[in-house]
Structures are given as structure tokens and as C-alpha cells.
Amino acid sequence: MKIGVGLFGNNGGHQIHGELVNHPYAAIVATAAMDRSLLTPEQQSDTDIRHYDSLEELLKDERVQVVSLCSPRRANQANEAIMCMRQGRHVYAEKPCAMHEAELDQLLQVVSETGCLFREMAGTGFQQPYLAIRNLVQSGVIGEVVQVFAQKSYPYHDARPQDEAIDGGLIGQNGIHAIRFVEHVACVRIEEIHAMETKLGNPSEHGGLHMAASMMMRLTNGGVASIVANYLNAKGFGSWGNEHLRIFGTKGFIEVVDGGARTRLIVGETDLGPIDTSAPEESYWDMFIQTLLGKAEMPVTLEEELHCTRMAIRAKKSAQAHTH
């Protein structure tokens, strides 16, 4: 018997329906507040999948064991995750899973109280080429990490919410990926973070969407990091995301640029060229399900995973303090 999955919402078009096509361990049994046209034709015609209007209705379906949350309003998602867990459901949540630190603390408390498995969709650092870079950093080949530069750039489109409560805003929705580059790929924890952001370039004159943010960090090992995040990736770039990551260590540096297209490893006086990214990657969703089944363990603890979200929340708070 496969684990029954309920999908709630598809804010930003995100959901895990594509990963549930012929999945060996899990299957969609219900949806709620979701655009069904996103489902595959086979999923749309599957009479075993029931469709509801609300999360409350979905939770009445006893076949639902895991709820995947892409809540229509991200500001509500932490409370919705807590509601799911208090009713005995495991939760897999789109980022940001919470928009305030108190909500993160409450999520962790409810996980402890209920024993439910909770995870954010935080697989950024475990996809190639970032997984290969993570492994190289952990091997010590570039020595101790001293400085990290990360960039996350998406294109602007008219459907981007002007209200940050809908998708979490630039830092929470976009910049969090770069924060994960620092903590999950460069493998150094952020101790202190500051940010500034701007609405300059927003086509909506009175809109609330921030278009660019800069973040500066001190790391727990004494190193430093900086992040560029924006909605300024022009279509001519050729791919949706324009990501850069450069990790400078005491023995060398490693980089991936142009949205993951090019990598390079330098150690001492030797240019080792592109890194090997051929090793298979495992989706974060698959790791979540296999952990639930006792077949595997997540690559980072829940506290380590949510520390990135915590830093995004603090960065946003810092940016708000710098707003004139």
C-alpha cells in the first residue's frame, strides 16, 4: 500500500505532482484549492483522487497521510502545517514555511509534540551541480571556507504577487535558495545576517514587490558571505534561473556560474577545470518519503534545514529596519 498524499494549493504553480507519477512508495489521493489542470492527464482522470475546496475538508479524508503544502497565502502556511500535524499528518511545505521566527519555533515544538515528520521543500543543495560541490567542500579539497558569494536571479513577470504575504517576498521566496547555497553547499553556518532591498524597477508604481536585495553575513567559523537576489534575470539569458556560487577556501576555490552551466575547481596553482557532476542525485521529496518509511535519513537535521529559513526571516527584518 502506497503512502497517501494530499496536495493543498499550488501557489506559484509549485507542487510535487510531477514527482508522484508512478512513484514506488507514494500516490496522490486528494487535492484541495489546487488547479487540477496542473495534474497529468492520468492523474486528472484517476477516480481514486478526490478533490476538495479547503484544507479542512482534505484533512477529513482518512487516506491522506502526508500533506504537501503550497498554500495560496504563504503567510498562513505555518498555521496550516500545525493544523495538519495536530491531526496526525506529516507535512512537506513549500518555502518559506514560515514568515516569523515565532512560527518556526512553534513548528519545531509541534513536531516534537506530535512525532510527525515535517520538512520544507529545501532540496536546493542536493541537486547537481550543487551536490557535487557540497561533497568536494566536505572533502576538504579547498581547505577551510573563508568567503562565499551566492547569487539567485529570477525573471520578473506580471503574475508575481505585489503582496509579500502571498509568496513570501523576494528574500523568503528567492533569496532563501542562496542562503541554502551558503549553509548546505558551502557547509558553513550563518551566525549574523543583514540585508537591504529595493522596489526600484518594479513596473507597478505603487506595488509592494521588492526587485533586488543584497545580504551580508558573518559565519560561525569567522568567515563572511554575501548574497545577491533579484527579479532582474532578462529573458535573453536563456534559462529561468541565473545562479552563481563561488566558495573561497584556504587551499583554493570552487565555482558554478551561469545557472549551473559551468563549474571550475582551482586548488593551489592547479586549475582542475570542470568538476564531475555525473553522480546521481536523489530528490528531496524521495528522501522525505524514504525517511518516513525508515529506509533512509534526511541529509540535514530539521533544525539545520530551518536555520536557512530563520536566516531569511532575520534578513527580511533587517531590510525592513533599513527602509526609509
Brief write-up:
The chain contains 9 helices and 14 strands.
% residues in beta strands? 25-35%
Shape: globular
**Averaging pLDDT over every residue, what do you get?**
97
Largest sheet: 8 strands, mixed
Strand order of the largest sheet: 8-9-10-7-11-12-13-14
Low-pLDDT regions: none
- The tally of helices reads 9
What string, H for helix and E for strand, traces the elements in order?
EEHEHEHEHEHEHHEEEEEEEHH
Q: Helix/strand-derived class? A: alpha/beta
Distance between the termini: 57 Å
Helix content: 25-40%
Task: Specify Rg, calculated over alpha carbons.
Answer: 20 Å
Number of strands: 14
Structure description:
With 324 residues, this protein is α/β, with parallel strands linked by helices. The chain contains nine helices and 14 strands. The strands form two sheets. It has an eight-stranded mixed beta sheet. Helix 1 links the parallel strand 2 and strand 3. Helix 3 packs parallel to helix 4. The longest helix has 20 residues. It is globular. It starts with a strand and ends with a helix. The mean pLDDT is 97.
How would you describe this structure in keywords?
6-stranded parallel beta sheet; 324 residues; alpha/beta; 14 strands
